[in-house]
Amino acid sequence: MAEEAKLEYNTLSPWKVQGKGGFKATSFIYGMLALENMGFVANMVSLVLYFWLKLHFDIPGAANTLTNLMGSAFLLSVVGGFISDTYINRFHTCLIFGMVEILALVLMTIQAHDDKLQPEPCVGKSSCISGRPAVMFYASLCLLALGSGGVRGALPALGADQFDQKDPKEAKGLASYFNWLLLSTVSGALVGVTVIVYISTNKNNHNWWKGFLITVVGTSVGFIVLALGKPFYRIQAPGESPLVRISQVIVAAIKNRKLPLPESPSELYEINEKESTFTEAKIVHTEQFRSLDKAAILPKDAEALPWTVCTVTQVEEVKVLTRMLPIIASTIIMNTCMAQLQTFSVQQGNIMGRKIGSFEVPAPSIPFIPLAFMIILIPIYEFTFVPFARKITKHPSGITQLQRVGVGLVLSALSMAVAALVEVKRKHQSLKNPLKPISLFWLSFQYGIFGIADMFTLVGLLEFFYKEAPSGMRSLSTSFTWISLSFGYFLSSIFVDIINVMTKRITPSKQGWLHGQILDQNNLNLFYWFLAILSVLNFFNYLYWATWYKYKPEDTTVATMVKSTSISGVPFLKTPEEDVSKATNETSINGVPFLKMAEEDVSKATNGESTTEHTEETDGKN
């Protein structure tokens, strides 16, 4: 029976070529990510100083320009995800957008090197850049957002494709893949925030072009490494457009809105095994969003056309994406908090005590501390916590993805509270004696806490969106993680503007909390408290949606995965397997549960019997 199941499993994955995939393939992806993130993360934490000190933006202008850039980059990951799911495979999508990213970095290097392409200082303006320098500046930022965003939309899913969820051994590898993906990102970031940031900000901010040049070289080498791994990759061909499949369900549901729902879900339209490819993943019917089920009702005397009726699987795909929306929304506030660590916290660090002996630490290098912690903690999490938790929960990842995200949200709220307390101390000392500021390393507390939060949340979201997504929408779904980041950055810009406008009306000085060029005249600590309180409220909102969420049932054609493992009685701690069990107990054909039929079909298919014969035999007995 084990050999039969193994044979069946191999026929389900025609793209799974022996000798390809696994950690051997993802090692190239890890190398590329480390090299590319060297420059990307260095820019994330230091460009606010480049805008502020080199291009003469004011404090909120520099912060908003960076958050808008990062927000656009992560939002455009949807473009990369959509293209790689529909038109070009994920590997080629990464290479194409990688060329765009390299072009952007080349333009930034040229502008930083040539003084004629930089603005002169001005007074009373949010930005001093205009004319040809402005065109080149904003063109390079747009290309950087498009290139880096497109790569991030396709790359995580390309790596995850190297592991097959239907193989129990590879399912564990998939869980580990996302942890090592974060480790490679953090390793590259550590070099970026130390070496590249130091070179960029050295000699009174006159070496920015050298930092950008190193970024160009590192990113170029990274994509060469990615290309060298092609012989080892399992590359899935793009399929039908996800947007078309979603639109078909919505249109069919509207057309059939007046039709009554059948009493049994078995009466809904689904393609049988003979009409579909054997590898097509079927999704079990669920009871949520029953109005969408009307898309799977075939009207009398109507032909089964795509825009007239949809399969149950297609309807369930839309339900999965709909269930994801509240999860995306409830992680946005955390990413708004992260934006502050890359903007205002860096500006704080620039006027704090940065000397260790005779060496002056660049302010953007302070994330070195949490990054170093994460490099130590990720292997400990992978080799110690996950095996221990796995024995208790029987879950491949140790704990569920939504549990990981919840831990991260709690820590992000704590990080903002600590940031507020540190800013109170910094401002008090600066006003008391400007010549003796507090040490830059006070910022390490807020960075360290948030670094651990990011370790939980980012990996949890990437794994969650990849595993829960329908097979033809995994790049697009994975990009939902970056959409949350994007909205967080944009929301940061909105908060800064709104709070400045509103606080102008109530403060005695008639100045906003975050106005002007001098931090000591601002009330940044109040802004941090505002985000801390908002984060606490958002956590309770997330708890509600995480409890409400029902994991996607597993593919019913895989006999080896037909198990249900309960790990807790608490709804928030539900695992995907619990939802499979519930769905299969509630949904049956002729009294035979779907998964039970699937097990029998797998067994009979291996012995040369068809699913149709099994159905006829069952009907005869009834």
UniProtKB/TrEMBL annotation:
Membrane topology value: Multi-pass membrane protein
One Pfam family here: PTR2
Entry GO CC: membrane
Main localization category: membrane
Similarity comment text for this entry: Belongs to the major facilitator superfamily. Phosphate:H(+) symporter (TC 2.A.1.9) family.
Name this protein carries in UniProt: Protein NRT1/PTR FAMILY 4.3
Localization per Swiss-Prot or TrEMBL: Membrane
Native species: Abeliophyllum distichum
Transmembrane stretches, start-end: 28-53, 65-84, 90-110, 135-157, 177-199, 211-233, 368-389, 401-422, 442-466, 487-506, 526-545
InterPro entries to which the protein is assigned, alphabetical: MFS_trans_sf, POT_fam
Keywords on record: Membrane, Transmembrane, Transmembrane helix
Region (Disordered): 601-622
